[in-house]
Write a structure and sequence with these properties.
Number of domains: 2
Shape: globular
Strand order of the largest sheet: 10-9-11-8-7-12-13
Order of helices and strands: HHHHHEEEHEHEHEHEHEHEHEEHEHEEEE
Distance between the termini: 57 Å
Structural class: alpha/beta
Helix content: 40-55%
CATH superfamily of the largest domain: Aldehyde Dehydrogenase, Chain A, domain 1
Largest sheet: 7 strands, parallel
CATH topology of the largest domain: Aldehyde Dehydrogenase, Chain A, domain 1
Strand content: 15-25%
Length: about 425
């Protein structure tokens, strides 16, 4: 694909975004329902394409987290379609009036939610993102240009065929959702610089991709999705209930950004917590990387390296550190966290409040697993990304995060004095 066809995608997306502006909420619901139906009709083709992607990825030496993210199964497709149903049921934010007020000069002023316009989304071996982004974009009246990883090209083509079928069945332009159908990495840079056609860039991938977007994009970028997530076991925690939360956070699905990567334990309860919890984690296949104080209680663990507490493992690997107290835990998290999801396990209200006030991550938990930082778990439906930046959107980005607003002034032929 050359630069001109990429610009053609941008022009088609811009024109389609104008068409989407005119859709009513019931029309959007009908469109999303059509996408869900089309995914069911295309399931065999989608799974066959994904099987080819998986075979090619394994032959290329991919393993672990990358293969898990690439894989589609009938159950995962069912879950994707269930997320679509959730999004259909959510209120449409477009057109919502915010902060309506009557000014002294007689002007009624409000802010009205509107679509961003055209989204550019760059992601890696996650074919589910193709559907997630498309559904959220269309629900909010946005067009989208997608650039998935080369490992998912066949899967994404098959998913896009279903989405295009749904768009055409509703009389809408296929340009509303488009795929950069080439593995050429130069096109990533070209997309990042299409500021005349794309209104927001959303990268979903590793730290390298996010850094590249921050350095080279001419378009506003939503960054995040890197999850060096922590749980701190406070000395006031209910120790009989700690292990279940830690195991859920680490083991349930270790290849995602909200999985636990570092466990901090107050030295006052470390001897009670770590031997049994360590054994349970090892039985679950978790490799432990422990600080010197934790190693005394976890003799089968590996000594933590200099950079181990800065790693997003995305695997069954867990850093374990014994800290002096709550203040030491807060200091560690401030230094090592990616500000994605961090939590404390405690029954002490004062400790919980100190932690909540001191930790500025996108999601902060008291007595809960970090695995809840997810659009569907938050009641947002499918998410387009998890933002760890502080402007525009934070945490799981659902519908409202894909809108901006315009000021609307309504007068009675009002003039400024």
């Amino acid at each position: 694909m050359s630069q001109n066809p990429l610009l053609a995608l941008g022009e088609a997306a811009r024109e389609a975004s104008y068409q989407l502006l005119g859709l009513s909420a019931p029309q959007k619901q009908a469109l999303l329902s059509a996408i869900s139906t089309a995914l069911g009709q295309h399931q065999d083709a989608i799974l066959a394409a994904n099987a080819e992607d998986m075979a090619a990825a394994e032959a290329a030496g991919l393993q672990g987290a990358m293969l898990d993210r690439l894989l589609l199964t009938p159950e995962r497709l069912d879950a994707i379609r269930a997320d679509i149903d959730t999004v259909i049921a959510l209120p449409d934010p477009v057109g919502e009036a915010i902060d309506s007020r009557l000014l002294d000069n007689g002007l009624r002023l409000s802010r009205r939610r509107i679509p961003l316009g055209v989204l550019g989304v760059i992601y890696e071996a996650r074919p589910n993102v193709t559907v997630d982004v498309s559904v959220l974009a269309l629900k909010t009246g946005n067009a989208a240009i997608l650039r998935g990883g080369k490992e998912t090209l066949r899967s994404n083509r098959a998913l896009l065929a279903a989405i295009h079928q749904a768009l055409e069945s509703q009389g809408l332009a296929k340009g509303a959702i488009q795929l950069i159908d080439s593995p050429d990495r130069a096109l990533v840079t070209a997309l990042m610089q299409m500021d005349s056609h794309v209104d927001m860039l959303i990268p979903r991938g590793g730290a390298g991709l996010h850094r590249l977007c921050r350095e080279q994009a001419r378009i506003p970028v939503i960054t995040g999705g890197i999850g060096v997530c922590h749980l701190f076991v406070d000395r006031h925690a209910d120790l009989s209930r700690v292990n279940e939360v830690v195991l859920n956070a680490k083991v349930q699905r270790p290849t995602v950004c909200n999985a636990l990567e570092t466990l901090l334990v107050d030295q006052a309860v470390a001897e009670q917590v770590l031997p049994v919890l360590g054994q349970q984690l090892r039985e679950a296949g978790v490799e432990l990387r422990a600080c010197p104080r934790a190693l005394v209680l976890l003799p089968e663990a590996i000594p933590a390296g200099a950079d181990d507490f800065d790693q997003e493992w995305l695997a069954l690997v867990l850093g374990v550190k014994v800290v002096d107290d709550l203040d030491a835990a807060i200091a560690h998290i401030r230094h090592h966290s990616s500000e994605h999801s961090d939590g404390i396990l405690t029954d002490d209200i004062a400790s919980a409040e100190r932690f909540l006030n001191a930790i500025n991550s996108a999601a902060v938990y008291v007595n809960a697993s970090t695995r809840f930082t997810d659009g569907s778990q938050f009641g947002l439906g499918a998410e387009v990304a998890v933002s760890t930046q502080k402007l525009h959107a934070r945490g799981p980005m659902g519908l409202e995060a894909l809108t901006t607003y315009k000021w609307v002034g309504q007068g009675d032929y009002t003039v400024r004095g």
